[in-house]
């Protein structure tokens, strides 16, 4: 190895060491547990290996948002997909391929049998044309009966095999659909995850423009969520997340989408609703959440009430999803600044309105 190659390796090693120290230091600064999974996230952030992850984490750090367990879990699910789902998709894909290949083999064999039967019929036709004797005719008829019976048996067998294969393909299709749904569902709360939200929002924007309909977006955040975790533990924090998700599911109907946006944040895509109607829905959701009591399952003790802050924005002409999210997020920050447990909407001026 030449001196230049050795120098390159040394420089790369020193650079990696510097990135590792920066990642560990940032984790300590943000009070993040030094687990391998968390280190993977922060090393990827400081190294810039994943631009999308770096953008999201950079925004969290810039806005001084805490890296709670739900936030870290959400980042891992979004940017480092669970291998379980990947393995299931590969396994199901292989099963589909095997089943289809088996069906093709059976159909090819049936085609060969049909050709063979056709040749036998042609041979019989030729023999009949030569005016055979009575004994020869009986022989021809017997041979024809035997060939036809064999063909019928093969046809029945093929029908049975294809019916079985069709059933197997149907089962595999249902399993693939289950895996697809699982990949779009937040495992903790059972509602749509960030991936499903991104897909639905893009689709909703296209449909709103095609049908000239209004489209609004709500961004919700649980007030003082970190205090629940610090005071009562992460299991209680998970219970809070599930409770809020249930409130959103109960309040959102029809074509609308409720999703866990990230960490303790949720989002609601409100189709066909202008800003005023969406803001009224947001306030209804806020009141539903506030009316709930957080109860410790083991003792039945009431731990307190939960409140959420919500930002609302309506899609503008020519606006993309990034700008719409940014304006709804601005409304959320305005709601937090106004004392929490309220709704703030953002009009076309990008300035948060005073009230919902």
Task: Report what the structure shows.
- With 356 residues, this protein is α+β, with helices and mostly antiparallel strands.
- It folds into three domains: 3-67, no CATH class; 83-183, Helix Hairpins (Orthogonal Bundle), CATH 1.10.287.1490; 194-346, Alpha-Beta Plaits, CATH 3.30.70.270.
- The chain is 66% helix and 11% strand.
- It has eleven helices and seven strands.
- The strands form two sheets. The protein has a five-stranded mixed beta sheet, with helices on both faces.
- Helix 11 (321-337) links the parallel strand 6 and strand 7 (343-346).
- Helix 1 (3-29) crosses helix 2, helix 2 packs across helix 3 and helix 8 packs across helix 9 (234-251).
- The model has no long low-confidence stretch (mean pLDDT 80).
